[in-house]
Design brief:
By secondary structure, the chain is an alpha/beta fold. It has two domains: 197 residues, Rossmann fold (3-Layer(aba) Sandwich), CATH 3.40.50; 114 residues, UDP-galactose 4-epimerase, domain 1, CATH 3.90.25. It is built from eleven helices and 13 strands. A seven-stranded parallel sheet has the order 3-2-1-4-5-6-11, with helices on both faces. The protein is globular. The chain starts with a strand and ends with a helix. The mean pLDDT is 95.
Length: 322
């Protein structure tokens, strides 16, 4: 199993897609998630599948035994509605990365990947819609998203120091609003693209004429399609770049523009009821891909409209089936 890849959080959205891509490229994969396997978003029988709570050091040691490369995608998280109201639970994710790093070090793993987030970026760079795209250096001086962002930034530093002190090669990708098929689209943990697709699809199927939008809709974001995210993640893992790199799209839109794209895909036009007291996150966020483009030659290849078309159809079909 020394040539195997461990994917932690394999039962989740990004983890499931990563397992699929690794298996398709001929890699042996050990897949681990806290959820029972029947609840995994994309279970693959050809992987070595395990259910374990990776907040526990013993579970991490078992998962990492005999493994060459480790991808840590495991986290208790969700969209803005979740992370703004579950700060302590998000901070507890530090146990996962701490124990996985210790297990990777002790097992002699060749390389360790940590999935970080654009939530590490300082809030003063994201306080208006017309922000300058975020460069990797903008994480410091530190003022990240409270709770989830602090945990991600701390875990990035832990990766760095495990490399410096123990010689464990670590790689870090800062994800910017990843979306796509097989993601959560209801229940409180969904992110903006899936939530909007669900609301528009539900309104169309029910013959309703309006939907609710969190905030005034003028907050800006960029959204990264899942296939681009997986491709970028594997490039980061295989690279010689030890510093964190953005893995995101630079195609900035307002939330109102996002809604308009989904409405056009669905062939409807709906009234928007803006809920101004709902969680809305930072005012503006966009990815500067200069560094990853120059170092690894990566940039996303999926336009927002194309990615949303796939996501909307996937969500619409599931809602229609009930």
């Amino acid at each position: 199993m020394a040539d195997s890849v461990l994917v932690c959080g394999a039962g989740g959205f990004i983890g499931g897609h990563l397992v699929k891509h690794l298996l398709a490229s001929g890699r042996k994969v050990r897949a681990v998630d806290i959820k029972p396997r029947e609840q995994w978003y994309q279970p693959f029988a050809e992987a070595d599948n395990h259910c374990a709570d990776l907040r526990d050091l013993t579970a991490c040691r078992h998962a990492a035994e005999g493994i060459g490369e480790i991808y840590n995608l495991a986290a208790d998280m969700g969209g803005m509605g979740f992370i703004e109201t579950h700060k302590a639970e998000c901070m507890l994710n530090v146990l996962i990365n701490t124990h996985l790093l210790m297990a990777a070090r002790d097992a002699g793993a060749r390389r360790f990947f940590f999935s970080s987030s654009a939530c590490v970026y300082a809030a003063n760079h994201q306080d208006r819609p017309d922000i300058t795209a975020l460069r990797e250096d903008d994480a410091y001086p530190a003022m990240p998203e409270d709770g989830y962002g602090w945990e991600k930034l701390f875990s990035e530093r832990m990766c760095r120091h495990f490399t410096e002190d123990y010689g464990l090669p670590t790689r870090v990708a800062r994800y910017h609003n990843v979306y796509g098929t097989f993601e959560t689209y209801a229940g409180g943990r969904e992110k903006a693209p899936a939530a909007i697709c669900r609301k528009v699809a539900t309104a169309k199927l029910r013959g309703e004429t309006s939907i609710e939008i969190w905030g005034d809709g003028e907050q800006t974001r960029s959204f990264t399609y899942i296939d681009d995210c997986v491709h970028g993640s594997r490039l980061v893992m295989d690279s010689a770049v030890a510093e964190p790199l953005n893995v995101g799209s630079s195609e900035k839109v307002t939330i109102n523009q996002l809604v308009s794209i989904v409405e056009d895909i669905a062939g409807v036009k709906l009234e928007r009821r803006h809920q101004l007291d709902a969680p809305r996150g930072v005012r503006g966020r966009n990815s500067d891909n200069t560094r990853i483009e120059s170092l690894l030659g990566w940039s996303p290849s999926t336009s927002l409209r194309d990615g949303l078309t796939e996501l909307y159809r996937w969500i619409h079909d599931r809602i229609a089936r009930g």
